[in-house]
Amino acid sequence: MTRRAAICTPLRTPVGKFLGGLSSMNAGQLGAVILKALMERSGIDPTRVDDVVFSQGYGNGEAPAIGHWAWLAAGLPIEVPGFQLDRRCGSGVQAVATAAMMVETGMADVVVAGGVESMSNVEHYTLAARGGVRMGDMVLHDRLSRGRVMSQPVERFGVITGMIETAENLAKDYDITRDEADAFAVRSHQNAAKAWAEGKFAEQLVPVAIPQRKGDPIIFDHDEGYRTDASMETLGKLAPIDGKRDPQAIVTAGNASQQNDAAAACLVVAEDKLEELGLTPMLWFGGWAAAGCDPSRMGIGPVPAVERLFERRGYRWDDIGMVELNEAFAPQVLAVLKGWGWSDEDSRRDILNVNGSGISLGHPIGATGGRILADMAHEMHRRGVQYGLETMCIGGGQGIAAVFERAV
């Protein structure tokens, strides 16, 4: 049994800066906000949902199986199950792909797919407390930074200091300069600022009411990370993050993605149930693929992932009218474009990340795939694009890609 999977009502919260406007809300609370809004805006009876697939890159014991936890926190029916998955940066795409496979195979009719991250609230932890420490210090690891160092087995690959190092490796492999990286970052901020000025995010956005000790809640309704003043001059003043370790380093805080807080979700629905449920699809799920790569060059992951997807589903670059390549780092994106064979003058650059991406809008790991999907879905309809490609690199050495078809 194979049925087409429809994407309905893709939504996202605004993206908060690290320790910024959303930091007082944990991941479970953000997940509840987006799930409640999804049920209200779609108009679907929540009891018709068969499962909730939620991604999170930094899960913890405060909201285990966060898809189910957030669903219950939103006050939704206890009969609906839910779970959590993690493919690091690619988790949000994986949530949608997993939901689509459930629908396509007849195992479910309606699945909520989404993701959430509160990087502001990722905890510090220790591995020493369970057995006790007789003498000496007890080390607390920062799960954010530790997760990047431990994203691959050290015994096999050695110590990779973090994702920044992997981006620097690609910059050298593909002869990418600091000016090229900064110029791409400026483009990202300019695209995001223009999209906000034109109201392009209005339909997909779910404002977050942030409770206060006294008085009314504060309404958080705007992305915090993009910079309207970004220029070659302002970005050029920033020192490379790994400059002391690597004199040739080019990655700065200005041409790298941010740490963020956000949530995103959509409905993934069987084609033959749409009319009965009164739902109008925005997109059809067109297939997905993931591929592994050298962890020390993890940023190149979209190249083999897209190649595998195109081979399996018969797509060609000529079919694709919009490309969303998450911006983990500017040199990483530029390396992928070279890996795809795109020249500096390639016209396809005009359909790449047209409203900004990770550098400007942010990279809230588990929510990034859903944030990108919500933006891409609405932009595909504005432009009349038939096929859109979403792809991203993944810490530890992977890439993931998915194609979506506009529902006319």
What does this protein structure show overall?
- It is a single chain.
- By secondary structure, the protein is of the alpha+beta class.
- 32% of the residues lie in helices and 20% in strands.
- The protein contains twelve helices and 14 strands.
- It has helices at 27-42, 66-73, 91-104, 143-149, 154-157, 163-173, 178-197, 232-236, 274-277, 302-313, 330-339, 365-383, and strands at 5-12, 16-17, 51-55, 82-85, 110-118, 124-125, 141-142, 208-210, 218-220, 260-270, 283-292, 322-325, 387-394, 398-406.
- Strands 1, 2, 3, 4, 5, 10, 11, 12, 13 and 14 form a ten-stranded mixed sheet that branches. A two-stranded antiparallel ribbon has the order 6-7. The protein has a two-stranded antiparallel ribbon with strand order 8-9.
- A hairpin with a 7-residue loop joins strand 8 and strand 9.
- Helix 1 crosses helix 2.
- It is globular and about 60 Å long.
Spell out the key features of this protein.
two-stranded antiparallel ribbon; globular; alpha+beta; transferase; acyltransferase; Thiolase; 12 helices; 32% helix; 408 residues; 10-stranded mixed β-sheet; Thiolase-like; 14 strands; acetyl-CoA C-acetyltransferase activity
Question: How would you concisely characterize the structure shown here?
Answer:
Helix content is 32%, strand content 20%. The chain is α+β, with helices and mostly antiparallel strands and 408 residues long.
What's the gyration radius in Å?
20 Å
Instruction: Point out poorly predicted stretches.
Output: none
Query: Structural class from helices and strands?
Result: alpha+beta
Relative helix content: 25-40%
Q: Globular, elongated, flat, extended or rod-shaped: what is the shape?
A: globular
